[in-house]
Amino acid sequence: MGHDHSHDHSVALVNVTQPNPVPPRFGVHVANGGLDVSVVARLATHVDFCVLDLDDSETRYALIPSNEGIWHGHINGLGVGTRYGFRADGPWDPDRGFFYNPAKFLLDPYGRGLEGSVDMSAAVYGHIVDENLYPTPYPLGGRLLDSRGQAPCSVVVVPASPWHQSHASRGKRRLCTRSMSRALRRTCRVFLANYREHTRAWHILRQWIT
User: Fold this and answer.
1) Average pLDDT for residues 146-160, to the nearest whole number?
2) Which of 10, 28, 46, 104 is the most exposed place for a label (fewest CB within 10 A)?
């Protein structure tokens, strides 16, 4: 990446050289002594898989691009319990729906584990805001303020067992899925309630989430 948006955080940069053997299997999966990683970002120019260590340091693994817009890789030595997120660089054009900002620590859209919550501060906004969290310029300008620590992270969890197993197991999975969905909805509601007050792009974001 052209810029390091780590601020005071310790950051290590690693280029992934081993591909995910099955790139269309989206998300992060435990496999072959490590993690298979795959995420779609068709207009991105760079995507990092970002792992958070216990000492709050961050290791950014630069994923391998593909012609299909899939960014992927296999990372050895990581497994269940890994806390992570993504950073994506690319075009910034809010009027066209492009909000790529590598300073923002992103959740895994295919993730099954979540840790933390959203701190509604200036850091979680992709655009520039004033002390009251209102957009200062219009069109919206991108803000290179690191959101790590102000936003939740994804967590690698134990792989689910096959869906054809017992009704009891399916019931537990449904309960877990509903609980996870409620947590994500609560996070989205908090974010959207604030975003609704502080940006003119609320109607666009509402269409995406709801």
Assistant:
1) 88
2) 10
